[in-house]
Amino acid sequence: MFSLEIESDKLKEALEAAEVLVDECKLNFTPEGFTIRAVDPANVAMVTLELQREAFINYEASEGEIGVDLKKLLDLLAMSRKDDVVNLQLDETGHKLLIHIGDLSYTTSLLDPSTVRKEPKIPKLELPSQIILPGSVLVRAIKAADKVGSYLWMKVDNNLAAFILEAEGDTDHVQLTLSKDELITLQSETDARSLFSIEYLLDIGKTLGKANEVRINLANDHPVKIQFTIADGCGEVSYLIAPRVESD
């Protein structure tokens, strides 16, 4: 059972963070808030999201889960105005979601959670290099890299005390070097470098561009972890993207 009220922009921000990777997912509810954990169909990228009860105007929920079509739900939320409050209630008997947006009321069918792709386990990773920078800076580098190639190097150079984003195509090359003074944080005891698909970075860039602070954790030829807060600090999104490991 759950019943909640939340500002439309906060709910859309949370659901869009998952929808850039998956079309459908499970929403897991507890008395403390809801969470999403999902992996894209190619098993390259994973999203973990939590929205705490403090993000809501009103929130009542017991332990449970529902399956949702994210695109359909976001299409309905697109009808909301910026200052609208969204009310969601679960109709357990009909397995439907009741949605009130201002003077609009919707009833939409839910997915059977058993038909939704199984939630991934969160891997235990040692990612000792940490970089914190504005989301807009990272998105700019990703878009620049997309002009010249399909993959982006993320590197920490301890000698330079810098974070480097670099892409190379058949004929073109682009590099952004950010010194420690230009970053919010750079913490690393060793060099680190991994190569990632720009396609996936572009997808998640749709959601992290507005984040004042994005935290990146990196290691050699390991997945990258990218985290940022949402809903005025009452929620968090975390992405893991698998690296492309170059053969010798």
UniProtKB/TrEMBL annotation:
GO terms for biological process: leading strand elongation; regulation of DNA replication. Pfam families: PCNA_C, PCNA_N. CDD domains: PCNA (cd00577). Residues 10-99 form the Proliferating cell nuclear antigen PCNA N-terminal domain. Keywords: DNA replication, DNA-binding. Residues 177-243 form the Proliferating cell nuclear antigen PCNA C-terminal domain. InterPro entries: DNA_clamp_sf (IPR046938), Pr_cel_nuc_antig (IPR000730), Pr_cel_nuc_antig_C (IPR022649), Pr_cel_nuc_antig_CS (IPR022659), Pr_cel_nuc_antig_N (IPR022648). Sliding clamp subunit. Responsible for tethering the catalytic subunit of DNA polymerase to DNA during high-speed replication. Sliding clamp subunit that acts as a moving platform for DNA processing. Responsible for tethering the catalytic subunit of DNA polymerase and other proteins to DNA during high-speed replication. This is DNA polymerase sliding clamp.
